[in-house]
Structure formats: C-alpha cells, structure tokens
Design a protein that fits this description.
Number of domains: 2
Largest sheet: 6 strands, mixed
Oligomer: single chain
Mean pLDDT: 87
Pfam families: ABC_tran
Bound molecules: adenosine-5'-triphosphate, magnesium ion
CATH architecture of the largest domain: 3-Layer(aba) Sandwich
Number of strands: 14
CATH topology of the largest domain: Rossmann fold
Strand order of the largest sheet: 6-7-8-3-9-10
CATH superfamily of the largest domain: P-loop containing nucleotide triphosphate hydrolases
InterPro entries: AAA+_ATPase (IPR003593), ABC_transporter-like_ATP-bd (IPR003439), ABC_transporter-like_CS (IPR017871), P-loop_NTPase (IPR027417)
Number of helices: 11
Family: Belongs to the ABC transporter superfamily.
Low-confidence stretches: 323-333
Helix content: 25-40%
Order of helices and strands: EEEHEEHEHHHEHEHEEHEHEEHEH
Organism: Plantactinospora siamensis
Distance between the termini: 12 Å
Structural class: alpha/beta
Keywords: ATP-binding, Nucleotide-binding, Transport
C-alpha cells in the first residue's frame, strides 16, 4: 500500500515576544497508507492541530519533510489541494446562509457539479434541514455541514480534526459508518480525536502523539498487542496455592503478580507454558484468560495522562516521549 501522507521529523516552535517560545512539534513522524481510516490521537496540546495545519500549508514548520499523495508539501500544495479535503478546527460559515446555499457557493467556487451538493447533504444526514439557516443549527449539525463541505470535491484524502466534537452518540455512530463507507469507496480518512472508544471501533491504524512526538503507530490491533503486556489472568482450583504457583512461574521466567484471587502472568509466549509449569507441581488452573486492553488504556499509559487520585493534571504534564520505560524503542511503521 503506498503512503498517502508521510511526515518525517516535523518541528515547529511557536515564538511570541510576550509568551516566549513553545515547542509544539519535536521531530514528529507519521505515515498513513491508502484506503485506511487512520486515527490521530493525543492529549490536549500535544500537537495534532499544529501537525494538520502545517500539512495544509497554514503554518510554516521549522524543519522536517512532508508528503501528501506522494508529493512534497507545501511546495506541491497547489497541485494536490484539489484531491485533499480537510476541516481543521471549527470552520466558520455565514450564519444567514442555509446548508445548501453554503455548499452551492463552495461548489461554484471549486468547479464542483451542483448535483454533488445534494449527494453530500444526503451522505452527512442533513438533507431534511438543508434549507434552514446555519445559525439555527446545533453544534452537531454544523459539524456535519463541515464534513459535507470537505467532501464536495470527492477527495482522495480526507483530513478531519476532531470530527466527533459536538455529536451525540447516534451522530457519532453515523459519522463512524460514513467514514467506513468512504474508506471502502477508496478514500483515505485521517481523523484526530480523543474519543478513544470510537477510534478503536472505526480506525484501521493509529498514530499516538505526546508532547509533539510520535509514541506509537501502526494497525490498531498491533498497537494494542504491543502494549498489552501480553498478560494472562490465572485462577487456581485452590486459591491458597497462589503464592506457591507464583514462585514456580517466576522460576520458569514469567513476570508474575499475586492478586487477591488470581495471578497476573506476563512475559510468556504461550498460555500452555503456564499450565504445563503449574501441572508439573500438581497445581491445577481453573481459569486462564488473556488480559484485554483497550486503546484508552494504551493511550493513557503512553502519553502519561492516566488520572492520579487527588491530583489535577495540568495540560503539558505528560510523559516525555522516549524517557519513560514502555515508550522507548520508537515503534514505527
Ligand atoms: N498560535 C499559537 N501560538 C502559540 N502556541 C500555540 C499556538 N497554537 C498552538 N500552540 C501551542 O502548541 C501546542 C500544540 O497545540 P495544538 O493545538 O497543536 O494541540 P492539539 O493536539 O491540537 O490539542 P487539542 O486536543 O486541545 O486540540 C500547545 O501547547 C499549544 O498551546
Ligand atoms: Mg486541536
């Protein structure tokens, strides 16, 4: 699969005379392959919007290399812009225009056939309300209109910054199925988000950013597997045997933690090696289950943003990429 979006070593420091300097991107890398729905995840202030704005030529980077649809940007932006649809942060519309007026205006300016306006209104679920003024729309309806405007030119690559913002659960589900349909039709979709449960359901692959650097990337299942710790929960017929079972497993080379009524066993290739080790000492397993992790746990671990009781985490208080144990090693694509 060719990459449709490629970023290497992107750097951006905001400089202001009054507020000093703020490093937003610190050698950031990202690769998105064609036909994927790709989740771009990171805590508030980690550099998602800065990345997307830089890609689209709205911010000048301090260094790094970027490609869209196989062409270097920003130099090739005039050539590729017609094949890239994007919404970065909340777009503004004329409040007195209806959705149809808004899209017709944009279609006229962009050489898009008028029939496409009705198509995209239908796609985003705004058909029934298309004649009402935008100022009477809810946040979620404005969000749908924004997606419709990005879809007008039937782009090869669709980039959406926080498309689920303001949508209700039904709207999020519709957005999800729309993204999937678009990917099936051959479009590549990149969406930034911090609604992780949604991303896990919708995305083929993800990039996780923390403090302006990539901390994980790859197919969702791979990222989950790499960071699940590969653990198994093990219960025994007799709970009293847990400590001795733990000793045996540690001797066999597994990392083992004793909990109240089970063991957590990590660092084994196959669960069969657990049962074999224990059975050799007449210890019998009554339950053995892989510990499943979700994207949210991986995200919290990698970005160092898991809540700590009694503390109010401030933005920018994340794990420094490359300095905490599990984030080392530069998993990449
Ligand atoms: N125009 C600006 N001037 C100065 N600093 C900025 C500017 N824009 C962004 N920043 C800073 O750069 C960092 C990255 O911001 P960015 O908007 O890219 O984060 P984000 O990942 O999109 O966050 P969110 O999830 O809150 O949208 C933040 O610390 C932010 O304060
Ligand atoms: Mg943002």
């Amino acid at each position: 699969m060719p990459a449709v979006l490629e970023i290497e070593g992107l750097r951006k420091t905001y400089r202001s005379r009054r507020r000093g300097t703020r490093r937003a991107l610190d050698g950031f890398d990202m690769v998105v392959e064609a036909g994927q729905v790709h989740g771009f995840l990171g805590p508030n202030g980690s550099g998602k919007t800065t990345t997307l704005r830089t890609l689209l030529g709205l911010i000048r980077p301090d260094g790094g290399r970027m490609e869209l649809l196989g062409e270097q940007v920003p130099a090739a932006l005039p050539r590729v812009a017609g094949r890239v649809g994007a919404i970065v942060e909340s777009p503004q519309f004329f409040p007195n225009f209806s959705a149809r007026d808004t899209l017709s205006l944009l279609a006229g300016a962009g050489d898009v056939p008028r029939t496409r306006v009705d198509e995209v209104l239908e796609l985003v679920g705004l058909r029934e309300r298309a004649k009402e003024r935008v100022k009477t729309y809810s946040l979620g309806m404005k969000q749908r209109l924004a997606v419709a405007s990005a879809l007008l030119k039937d782009p090869k690559l669709l980039i959406l910054d926080e498309p689920a913002n303001g949508l209700d659960p039904g709207g999020i589900r519709e957005m999800r199925s729309l993204m999937r349909d678009l990917a099936t039709s051959g479009m590549t979709v990149v969406l930034s988000s911090h609604i992780l449960g949604e991303v896990q359901l919708i995305c083929d692959s993800v990039t996780i950013i923390s403090l302006g650097r990539r901390v994980a990337a790859g197919p969702v299942a791979e990222v989950l597997a790499q960071h699940s710790g590969g653990g198994y929960r093990v219960r025994l017929e007799a709970a009293a045997d847990l400590p001795v079972a733990a000793e045996e497993l540690v001797r066999a080379g597994a990392r083992t933690t004793v909990a109240e009524d089970h063991l957590l066993v990590q660092g084994v290739d196959k669960p069969a090696s657990i049962t074999r080790t224990l059975a050799a000492r007449d210890l019998y397993v009554s339950e053995l289950a892989p510990v499943t992790v979700d994207l949210e746990s991986v995200f919290l671990e990698l970005t160092g943003t898991a809540p700590v009781p009694g503390q109010h985490r401030q933005v920018d208080e994340s794990a420094v990429p490359g300095q905490t144990g599990p984030t080392q090693g530069g998993w990449g694509v």
